[in-house]
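Suppose you are handed a protein chain with no further information: no name, no annotation, nothing but its sequence. What can you learn? This example shows the usual starting point.
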Amino acid sequence: MTPIAIPLQSCASTLFDFRTDSVYKRPNLNRAARTALPSTNLLGLWSADANHNKNVKYNGLNNDKDVILQAVGAGTPNNTLVGYRKEDLNMDGKVRYSNTDNDRNLVINNLGISTPNAIISQHTPN
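A reasonable first move is to predict its three-dimensional structure. Written in structure tokens, the prediction is:
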């Protein structure tokens, strides 16, 4: 989200680079609004909000990994769903809870393997 409103013209292009330009930061949150992208000098938005509740959470109620498990089937965690879905957090066209390139790892990697109870809150003025 941009720090101020950007007017959009019906016939003109409006450019905003979320990797480098200033973004909105909620004053009551102490975590950065963006994260550094590996091996670059660029920033990116936090990912892994599978249940769209404006935070990234690995453990506890309303966590994001359970949404992935429910999608593939709780009784079949090794199942793979093909297609772009809200649970496809790494956007590879597959939803996986287990195995290589699973979407669950993206949740824990954002929070930090040593802090699985942490929560990343979205920086929106709601």
